[in-house]
Amino acid sequence: MNRILLLDSEAEMVDLLTSHFGAEGFQVESVTDREPAIRLSLSGQYALVVLDVSLPDFNEFEILRGIRAKSSVPILIVTARNDDASRILGLEAGADDYLSKPFNPRELIARIRSILRRGYFPAPTTPSASEWLSVGDLELDKSAWVVRRAGEQVDLTTVELQLLEALMRSAGHVLTRQELVEKVFGRHFSPFDRSVDMHISNLRRKLSNGIDGKDRIRTVRGVGYVYPRASEMQPKHSDLQTGCIA
Question: pLDDT for 134-155, tens place per residue?
């Protein structure tokens, strides 16, 4: 599927991106209003959604949250706002990646292809051994796009699932931010890129603490992140003692 949904109310930007996308073999449909934006994003007809979060009164974050509440379709946001807050809000609301204006259309195309290479497979299929991971009470079935914590399903975005997969496959071993950016985002690492940190923060919030009461994904300061082995998340014996009987 090579169809892209463009959510933007700026005519010049729509024309520019439509031209570039078309030259790269993508089919583009643009929309400006909230209701059709969410409805079309949830239709399953598009490989990716590009959302401009630079425009006043566009309710972009409301649209983003509305889409993400019901779908894991990849979403890339573009913004002309120079403040980190806009990018952080977009990532917290569920965007897979972001690109700041002004940007080279070739970079946008590269980002889109990188996201699409990660895969978006919402329909369940029969899992293979390589697509099924389990660490402690957390299970990840990539083929069915499902993560379960103690048997309870946890809804993740595309990039969150990809990050969790990379960490679980390397459980007990630290992955640097550079490794995560290259594995998941498919691009070169920039020290100023905080997108990985924001996605990790979202993952922690959604997964909640492990059975030992600590973060499931742990920070190794100045290096990166690690998902502990199941044996490393066991509560200490003293933690199990809730009191004594006289």
Answer: 998 999 988 777 899 988 999 8
Q: Are 210 and 191 in contact (CB under 8 A)?
A: no
Q: 32-72: per-residue pLDDT in tens?
A: 777 788 889 899 889 999 988 765 555 677 788 888 888 88
Which strands make up the sheet holding 27-31, listed edge to edge? 27-31, 3-7, 48-52, 75-79, 97-100
pTM for the whole structure: 0.64
Give the mean pLDDT of 160-189: 89
What CATH number does residue 149 fall under? 1.10.10.10
CA 68 from centre of chain: 10
Neighbouring C-beta atoms of residue 67, cutoff 10 Å: 25
Give the SS3 label for residue 209: coil
> Structural domain tally of the chain?
2
Residues whose CB is less than 8 angstroms from the CB of residue 161 and which lie 6 or more positions away in sequence, other chains included? 72, 140, 142, 145, 147
Can you tell me the mean pLDDT for 74-102? 80
Residue ranges in 7-136 assigned as alpha helix (H): 11-23, 34-41, 60-68, 84-92, 105-118
Contacts of 128 (CB under 8 A, 6+ apart): 143
Q: Which residue type occupies 155?
A: D
Q: Is 245 a member of any domain?
A: no
CA–CA dist 195, 76 (Å, integer): 12
Please tell me the distance from the alpha carbon of residue 119 to that of residue 151, in angstroms, as a whole number: 25
Domain of residue 19, residue span? 3-118
Q: Are 41 and 49 contacting, i.e. CB atoms less than 8 angstroms apart? A: yes
